[in-house]
Amino acid sequence: MSLRWKIFHGIRQRSQIPPLQVIVRGYNTCQQSPTEKEHGSSRNTREPATLYATCVAVAALGISYYITFKYKRNVYALSATQNVQCGQLRKDMKTYTLEEVGKHDSKENRIWVTFGQGVYDITEFVDKHPGGPSKIMMAAGGTVDPFWTIFANHNTPGIHSLLESMRIGNISEEDAESNKSDLYDPYANEPARHKALIINGNKPFCAEPS
Fold first, then answer.
1. Global pTM?
2. C-beta separation of 158 from 210 below 8 A
3. What is the 3-state secondary structure (H, E, C) of 115-148?
4. To 5 degrees, how large is the angle CA 167–CA 170–CA 172?
5. Which of 83, 170, 190, 206 has its CB surrounded by the most CB atoms within 10 Å?
6. For residue range 114-159, what is the model confidence (pLDDT) as tens digits?
7. Is 107 helix (H, G, I), strand (E, B) or coil?
8. Beta strands of 61-203 (E only): which ranges?
9. Is 140 in contact with 106 (CB distance < 8 Å)?
10. What phi, psi does 113 have (nearest 5°)?
């Protein structure tokens, strides 16, 4: 009976081990699950944060590129043109020949004029000219220099600024000198006036008593 009891007792103990192992494994699984969930949750939280940080970095690089290469270049170009007076050479614009300018003498071909070294498309302004379109059309395809020598009231900052707003290019320095050499100054032999006069304009001379 003793031997049988030992055999029975041994079989009974072996049959109880698997349930115990299952219980232990189940307990370990329960203990590990929250940790794994925490890691998963942390990973899910980090991914949007990483994506956001990447987007911010890319945007910052784009803004930096624009400021460095685009904005500053535009500012430098603008400041360079702001220092150019009406009729002076503008290096940021195309240079035309007098022959090319001469082809633009009607609304169909656009109306161009020159002043100094500047080339101007005045097509849209012709009908708005205070003296009438016929007057300004006398300079179409040519230079306004001789007309502005006679009608010197055009030589004001306001009119120069208006003309410069219609700037499209340049003529060469040689062509500009050629235009000047053809000018006749009708006021070249004007007599000297008394110094007591308040001079409002030299060509034509306009003054009033002080």
1. 0.52
2. no
3. ECCEEEECCCCHHHCCCCHHHHHHHCCCECHHHH
4. 165
5. 170
6. 999 999 999 999 999 998 999 999 999 999 998 888 888 888 999 9
7. coil
8. 95-96, 105-106, 110-115, 118-121, 167-171, 197-202
9. yes
10. -140, 165
